[in-house]
Amino acid sequence: MREELLQAKKYIFERPLLIVALCVGASSLVARPYVGILTLVLSLVSLYNYWFTANRIMSAARIVAYIQLELEERKIGKWVGWETCLRYHRKWQKLNKDKEIVVEDKDFIPEAILYYPQIHKLHIVLMFGALTGSAAITITSFSLVNIACLICVGYVTYLFCPDIKKYNPNWAKQLSEYNRAIWKQVFNYMVSKGAK
Predict the structure, then answer these.
(1) C or N terminus of the chain, fewer CB within 10 Å?
(2) CA distances (Å), origin 151, targets 25, 83, 124, 130, 137
């Protein structure tokens, strides 16, 4: 599981840099009237990568909380392996999808996940860079392709804006304690079912 955590961090750091490198490299290969397509590709890939990054952060927080409670503290029931616990986690989530999760240990919420604010800002720069670039390309190289790309990049940016607020650094820093609260309830649910 620790290896999975390291792999998730690696993806979070490397993917945005790879996106930028690929777009810069591809810009010399695309004919001028169609260069607006690159801004559309940049915006789409940035949006997908942002969702992927948020998913990896959530997954990492879930793993960290499991490690803390099940492997290090061992307070609730007998030890049960990761895959079995994850299965009960999914079942509990489905049964309690409308339940409000209360974080009891607010004193332990870290000030920030050190790398996430920069990754968050980088995605904002990539998305609004794609929008600005698309507008500049459309103005300087007016074509139907570039106009269509500008409209599409604008729409992708519109889709991205709510996620900027939803997956902000404050959201990220609370995930570990939030997941601890969920795991405690999952473990108690497992105990009640005789699975732990």
Answers:
(1) N
(2) 24, 44, 18, 12, 12
**Per-residue pLDDT at 111 exceeds 70:** no
Helix extents (H) in the chain: 2-27, 36-66, 82-95, 116-140, 144-166, 169-192
123's tokens: 């995605």
Structural domain harbouring 139: 2-192
Q: What is the mean pLDDT of residues 54-74?
A: 90
* C-alpha distance across the termini of the chain, in Å: 20
**DSSP letter assigned to residue 31:** -
pLDDT for the residue 8? 62
Confidence check: pLDDT of 18 > 80: no
Output DSSP code: residue 97: T
Instruction: Return the axis-axis angle of helices 36-66 and 116-140, rounded to nearest 10°.
Output: 170
C-alpha–C-alpha distance, residues 143 and 121, integer Å: 31
**Number of neighbours of residue 102 by Cβ within 10 angstroms:** 9
Q: For residue 52, which of 26, 96, 19, 24 has the smallest C-alpha distance?
A: 19
What is the domain count for the chain?
1
Asked if residues 59 and 174 have their Cβ atoms less than 8 Å apart, the reply is no
